[in-house]
Amino acid sequence: xxxxxxxxxxxxxxxxxxxxxxxxxxxxxxxxxxxxxxxxxxxxxxxxxxxxxxxxxxxxxxxxxxxxxxxxxxxxxxxxxxxxxxxxxxxxxxxxxxxxxxxxxxxxxx
Length: 110
Known about the structure:
Blueprint: H1 4-14, E1 24-28, E2 35-40, H2 49-53, H3 56-75, H4 79-89, H5 91-104
Antiparallel strand pairs: 1-2
Helix pairs in contact: 4-5
């Protein structure tokens, strides 16, 4: 299940808005009811539960992509090591190093 943050962010983007911490805040009271929008000051109506639910699939995809990108970021060699690889071994050898990580953490599209 996607996070309220991601669903709200996608709702905002679909309405030509961007996330702004001064205009929206999310809260979870740890009472078993889950997270909710605690404050909303955009010039559009606060999304309903049903509107946010319609972003579930897109949010799941967005969150899965972020996991892949974070894994890749953590797995890639440092920029200094990448430049050193290019200098000493050439672009084609560098591409092999990068491809290993890309193959390990593929982006997938539904």
